[in-house]
Amino acid sequence: MSDPAAVAVPAAFSDDLPRLRDALQAYAERWPDEAADVQPFLKLLAEGVHAFGRERLEGHFTASAWLVDGTGTRLLMTHHRKLERWLQLGGHADGDTDIARTALREAEEESGLSGLRVEPEIFDIDRHWIPARGDVPGHWHYDLRFIVHAGSDETFVVSDESHALAWRPIAALLEEPGMDPSIVRMARKWRQRQAPG
Fold this sequence. Notes:
The chain is of the alpha+beta class.
């Protein structure tokens, strides 16, 4: 007899959840200093598809794009309209359990760029608090960040979600006062990855 409280997982999602679990575990192995930070993500993932929707008011998965230009020296950043800070592009999963695809979609929608390419491995994770706004209570974003590469045309279009967009030199982000600590962390990771040898 089946459990009436059980929620059927659509076939399209059935592979995404274990794949994401494996990716998070691989991330913890690659970045052992962040292994403890992975545990809340794994706990949320155990809730299944519910964790990918805004309806989970306590918090939910989001996706971000570390969107680099063709030279790998500049990052496309948004001056976020709601948060009033310079950040990477990204947004809600809205039920999509393929979180790398979500990062790519958000990069496309928020930049207007086409020909983007996403790398499937998790580049960074960040759990951060979003203050209450209107009728939406304060909640946690469990943000999974992916490297996205720009195509040949790097001419962006500013969306309604941004005050502005700008290609920013990644090296300068390390020295900029008041820069979001997770951006600095990702800039360090990116420079480590780009270092010869």
